[in-house]
Amino acid sequence: MATGYRTHWNLPVCFIFWVAAVCQPTSAIVPKLPPPLLACLWDSDTLAVERSAMPGLHELVVGHFPRHSDAYYRWRIASGESRPLDTWSTEDFDNVAVAHDKLQAHEDAIKLMREKSERFTDDRLYETYANWGTFLIHAGRFKEGLEKVEDAIRINPDAHFGREVYQKRLVEYVLLRMRSKKEEIVSLPLSNDPIDSFHSFLMRYEPAASSEADGKDRKLQALREEAIRGITGMMRFGNAASPILLETLGDLLSPHHDVPDLTHRRLAARCYLRASMLAEGLRTRRLYREKAETVAAGIEDDSILSTIEARLADELQQADRLTQAIAEKEAAWIKSDADVDAEFQASFLTDPPLTLVGTRPWIQDHREVKDRPRLTIWVMTSFACVVISLIMVLRRSKFRSASI
């Protein structure tokens, strides 16, 4: 009887505690964190660490950085062509040629560089060969472009932070991976195997290894970081929406056995996902997505890629809004006959950062999402225990009533 008596009183007490626990909001069950952490603990906070190592890289991958509109480049061409060609300076040639290239008129840009080289015969004019090589590469004439880039490197190997050195390596890699070298046909992705990735190709040019293992690791990491700066420079000043540049950047950001400490899986996954959106052909898009799945597999969450995709969609919307805002401002400046270059510098000198803390329903704390199945099981089990306990209490009460 004593045991039954204790059970009779303990069960209602358990019920009270259960009701108190179940009625608490989820935020009370899951430890509450400061708002920025709670909104995006597993993605944005970890991503913030990756971003801090390479500032501006995240914005560059999604295209969220100040760049001129098509209207600006048409205005620049019109302004240049309004004056006789024989009055143009070397800077005029570069400005108008770059504008043509930005508007995908690569052959017009190449023609202007050829004309500039004939008019200004200084063979140490670095900008001529650097631009000429870039225009040829954008036109798909990789071998010719490589020759001009090599000329630019000979003239000034340290210009643009050594970007041309990695442009040269990249073109050599593209030529190596071409499906048809004679017709210069590029098949994307350039590689589906880490052994054949741009990172692996680049490591072949690693200087003589230090006798100490730590020294060698530092050299490898430094080489990789320099390559990342080179590729991102091409994206910022060339074409940030290039699947080739996004793929090779993703290769460099992915983890590798030789440089295990420099891993940026979330940024690498974004590179491959963005390349899959920009590439042509269902097969190419599928292969880029598979590369994203592979690099994201090392993150401890089964749903990580789908969440990164959702975040990426939001980031791309932010990039589109910035692009539209710039286009509207430049259109107004052109219409009012303002100094567009000066206005642009004054308005967009600093790169605006992405907003990482989300406000949409799908942006939730990782631990809350991860613990939700476990929480559901706990609630259901507790409810079942309470029901059984109440039945036992009622039966005992009925039995006592019958005995009396």
Keywords:
404 residues, mainly alpha, 18 helices, globular, disordered N terminus
How would you describe this protein?
- There is one protein chain.
- This protein is an all-alpha fold and 404 residues long.
- Helix content is 70%, strand content 0%.
- The protein has 18 helices and no strands.
- Helix 6 (90-102) packs antiparallel against helix 7, helix 6 runs parallel beside helix 8 (126-138) and helix 8 runs antiparallel to helix 9.
- The radius of gyration is 30 Å and the shape is globular.
Average pLDDT metric:
78
User: Which spans of ≥5 residues are poorly predicted at pLDDT below 50?
Assistant: 1-53, 357-372
The proportion of residues in beta strands is: under 5%
Could you describe the largest sheet, including whether it forms a barrel? none
According to DSSP, the number of beta strands is 0
Rg, alpha carbons: 30 Å
Structural category = mainly alpha
Helix content: 55-70%
What does the overall shape look like?
A: globular
Report the order of strands and helices: HHHHHHHHHHHHHHHHHH
- Quaternary structure state of the chains depicted: single chain
